[in-house]
Queue: 2 jobs
Job 1
Amino acid sequence: MTEQHILRAFDRDLETIQAQLMKMGGMVETAILEASSALEARDDELAQKVRSADKAIDAMEERINEEAARLIALRAPIATDLRMVLSVMKIAGSLERIGDYAKNMAKRSVLLAQMPTVGSAGGSLRRMSKAVVGMLSDALDAHVSRDADLARDVLNRDREIDQMYNALFREFLTHMMEDPRNITACMHLHFIAKNIERMGDHATTIAEQVIYLVTGVMPEEDRPKADSVTSHGVDGAQS
Amino acid sequence: MNDMRVSESAVGAQDVKISARKVQVFYGENHAIKDVDVEILDRTVTAFIGPSGCGKSTFLRCLNRMNDTIPICRVEGDIMLDGEDIYDRRVDPVQLRAKVGMVFQKPNPFPKSIYDNVAYGPRIHGLTRNKAELDEVVEQSLRRAALWNEVKDRLHAPGTGLSGGQQQRLCIARAVATSPEVLLMDEPCSALDPIATAQVEELIDELRANFSVVIVTHSMQQAARVSQKTAFFHLGNLVEYGETGDIFTRPQDPRTESYISGRIG
Ligand SMILES: Nc1ncnc2c1ncn2[C@@H]1O[C@H](COP(=O)(O)OP(=O)(O)OP(=O)(O)O)[C@@H](O)[C@H]1O
Ligand SMILES: [Mg+2]
């Protein structure tokens, strides 16, 4: 639907919430990247910045929801317009959750900075974060350009994140078995890995919203989960 | 969550009440309805939507042979009510219109009292046995049309002396007084305030328990609120017909989408 509304103020309202969502997306991408840099570089100051930036992300979600509620009340959107507003609200919710995970990662990185390093996990986690940021930014681009193919591509990439998580999980397990003094640090690192994996799930949810926006139907839930963790007898807890 | 329909408005498996096949309508040279196939379900509210002049009123009038009264109008194709051809020579249009009632786009009360306007149908069709029964039908009909409280003290005043919105509700009362099986309503709320509109919508929803209602409306919100099925007409064609919940969340035809969402199509 690229045609304009006869009532041009309606288009302006829709553009406004779209722009706000993209701004929020940018804030969340920055939070993930900075949290992972802070972790790898043991940079407390950067970690602190991520933690305080989360408040702005939360405030942004609230603003988007208010704007969307106003648009529903005043413009009574239907069809694509309705799906657009609904998708913006749901995506803002997912972004807010991702922001929380980034904040949690920053919190743990401050604690980890006081412990001896374990293996090369910092680098692996940064790569995993980068992959998630890639999914997220593609999902958001797909939202702006109404590109269902790009969104489907994001869905497929969630598998890679799951695999990275599983590999890290095994690595942490090895470190812990080698030397029980590694357990505290490894537990924190494991939670971080799990959080990044959850971010990937939220990026996937966003991509699903894009598919719903473009096609009017939610994609089928048939993505195979590359999750072998449960077979280790441990259910990955979060934060 | 791949379905956002409100479950209440979802349509069960209803019987077909009216079945139209290959309907064409001509006003002289003007081809106003082109090859329309549609099945109107029993116990269901069906909304006809579409831009001005697309043929909604014309098609609606085919369903109770109101077009017979327009000399230059020619109707082709089949329209079956409960499996019987309503254009069959043996069908009496007056009897048909008692079964398939109609409320017009412009209120058209008879130049008679409020009471007589409503009593007219039950009288000519002999639906009541005595004055008390007729009084009862008149009161019930006026109540259903959300007009009773405003007119109960002046039932013998002329119907034409009511306000536009009141006249429209009087016509609704007149149409429901014969307990039609199908009620055709052409923009019944265009002259009504929000309260009277809500009351008429409530009436429509009530009627759906027993009857089939077809409503032409220019209000997308009204179509979404009251109907379970929606038909979108464009330039004499039936472009899209489906569950109201689907039409308003994921219309299949770009012409439907542009129209309902207020875009330059
Ligand atoms: N009595 C008539 N005589 C001649 N032409 C007519 C008559 N009634 C309708 N038409 C023509 O038939 C076409 C369809 O008109 P119709 O009244 O069915 O449209 P509509 O969809 O009900 O429009 P609106 O929303 O404005 O009421 C138009 O081109 C109109 O000019
Ligand atoms: Mg009309």
Job 2
Amino acid sequence: MSATAAMNNRKKTSLWAMLIIVLAILILPLTGYLYVSMTDQPAADEQTNPRSDTWRQVRENQEGYSAVKGQETNELIQGAGQNWRQLRNGPIATYGAWLLSGVLVILAAFYLWRGEIKLTHPRTGKTVQRWTLNERRLHWTTATLFILLAITGLSLLYGRFALIPLLGYPGFSAYATAAKWIHNVLGPVFMVALFIILIKWFKNNLFTKVDIEWFKAFGGMVGDKHPSAGKFNGGEKAWFWTLATAGVALCFSGLVLDFPNFGQEREVIIGAHLIHILTAMLLMAFSLGHIYIGTLGTEGALEGMTTGHVDVAWAEQHHDLWLKEVEEQQQNTPQ
Amino acid sequence: MARMKFLCDAERCIECNACVTACKNEHEVPWGINRRRVVTIDDGIPGEKSISVACMHCTDAPCQAVCPVDCFYTTDDGVVLHDKDICIGCGYCFYACPFGAPQYPQEGAFGARGKMDKCTFCAGGPEEDNSAEEVEKYGRNRLAEGKLPLCAEMCSTKALIAGDGDIVADLFRSRVVRRGGRPDNWGWATAYKD
Ligand code: HEM
Ligand code: SF4
Ligand code: SF4
């Protein structure tokens, strides 16, 4: 490939990345309406008696007139809130807790069974650069924000059950005020960091045939085979695309919750809130796996993201195609 | 013990907003907040109906169920009250409430909410009855003085009635029997299970 063709290619991929993100910006906030139209079924009442018409309108939450101005003051009864209460306090809180603790138990069991995945060849002492300083800063900023958001967000959902018995009502209230503030302020910052990551690493994360083989071999997690991988392996790409979809939905639904000054209706907020918790649960579950593999699970993986360099033996074992690329590049650039 | 309830008779309400004003004055409710409001359906069209609505003091209250800091409590009279010292202004009770009762003073940028305010059935809050702090945070505590909510007391057509749920229901039933028609005790099916 000539230099200009490569340049064109890069331009094209970043254009596509921008386009997908802009589309997501436009479409995802609208999903609240979908939830509302699914849950707000009007009563099938076909009478035309004027008085019963009035009561039907009231039940269907038709807007009236009110001299008191304010958010949705002209509505009498809003039904979506009850569904939200049932979903949030019921299945979402329950299964969310099961999901997160289930993933932890599975990871612990996996660790006991498989242990750390060791280097198959001894360290060579020679290293290659895997992440630049900027990439590492970006990764750790995003990771720190993610963890802070996860802890503060979960405190709002489970604190009433888990923390009030420990801290008491005034104590938990003070903590929750801070947690809410931190969550609301760091949310948009996290969003910026995430978007930079998505744009920066987009072109390395397109799935290729190599990844199919990688998944077939369970990424080398099970058995002794070591499937090939480029800079990002199949699992990392799956994490990338989870962030690019559910992560983006998480951010935009978060913005809907974060800025009540635009007067968005309760039904929209409720829809956004449900999307927010569901995507947050998914990402938190996935992040546990990501953290496990990057630390306890794989010998030599963490140093890539802390020092920026990995041993050639590690690169050969886990990212052989990428190592080849890097070596070719080094040969081609005169020293 | 009585089980306190509100009922608004839509055949009587004339949308004068006296209840709204009475409440605002009695409790010195802050600027921008109204604990009660009147909603008119088919405004200006023959057959229009008005209903005065505030917190209904629900059985198994949705606001109470979703509050992350658990600051609501139900009194022996079935009145749903909350503790403003504990409230974090998250807005969840407003999302869950069928009647749009919880209100927030704006505090800080981007519409950040202050501590929630809503109708107390003229029963104040957790502080000592009619202490300066209670009046400051929640308004007057008329129930402690043996009086019923001022909005209903002030209602010129006696459309809005407040008090022991059994007495309220009997009163309304006798009206409906005399004038005919259906007993449209608006909001009761949503609010009350007892
Ligand atoms: C890793 C990322 C995130 C996680 C794990 C997360 C998780 C959560 C959870 C569990 C809740 C509480 C739900 C409940 O109490 O029912 C929540 C609420 C919320 N989240 Fe997030 N969130 C994340 C990112 C964001 C982002 C990026 C934003 C904004 C752009 C955001 C804004 C909000 C807001 C405004 C609330 C409502 C808080 C309140 O008003 O009390 N979150 N989040
Ligand atoms: S009307 Fe709303 S605020 Fe009042 S008790 Fe019912 S849910 Fe709570
Ligand atoms: S705004 Fe206050 S009272 Fe309402 S749910 Fe949040 S913390 Fe509870």
